[in-house]
């Protein structure tokens, strides 16, 4: 779980997430899941926050049944596809969800 302080401290990243979510045309549910997953496991390093934000968007879209490709999310968020590929399962697991086995 996260606190209001986490939200304030990561306001810049949440704004970037919103822009990427707009580019992906994600629903409010997918955005909400993504924000919750991101804020629940925000990395300490600013360098890691962009990829974590993108992985959270990808995972949020999956949870909301609005699947987007890793490439689409990477382009919308300005990160590499590999950075999403390496993180999205951990994002889901940290939220208490089991990643799909496909």
**Main sheet?**
none
Query: What's the overall average pLDDT, rounded?
Result: 92
- Shape, principal axes of CA atoms: globular
SSE string, helix = H, strand = E? HHHHHHH
Low-confidence stretches: none
| Strand-pairing-aware structural class | mainly alpha
- Give the beta-strand count: 0
> What is the straight-line distance between the termini?
28 Å
CA-atom Rg in angstroms: 12 Å
The proportion of residues in beta strands is: under 5%
Report helical residue fraction: 55-70%
Number of helices, counting only DSSP H or I runs of 4 residues or more? 7
Polypeptide structure, described:
There is one protein chain. With 102 residues, the chain is an all-alpha fold. Helix content is 70%, strand content 0%. Helix 2 packs across helix 5, helix 3 crosses helix 4 and helix 4 crosses helix 5. It is globular, with a radius of gyration of 12 Å. The N and C termini lie far apart (28 Å). The mean pLDDT is 92.
């Amino acid at each position: 779980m996260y606190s209001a302080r986490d939200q304030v401290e990561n306001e810049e990243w949440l704004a970037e997430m919103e822009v990427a979510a707009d580019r992906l045309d994600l629903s409010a549910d997918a955005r909400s899941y993504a924000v919750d997953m991101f804020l629940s496991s925000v990395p300490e390093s600013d360098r890691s926050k962009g990829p974590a934000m993108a992985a959270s968007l990808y995972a949020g879209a999956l949870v909301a049944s609005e699947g987007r490709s890793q490439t689409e999310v990477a382009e919308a968020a300005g990160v590499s596809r590999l950075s999403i590929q390496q993180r999205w399962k951990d994002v889901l697991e940290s939220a208490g969800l089991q990643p799909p086995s496909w």
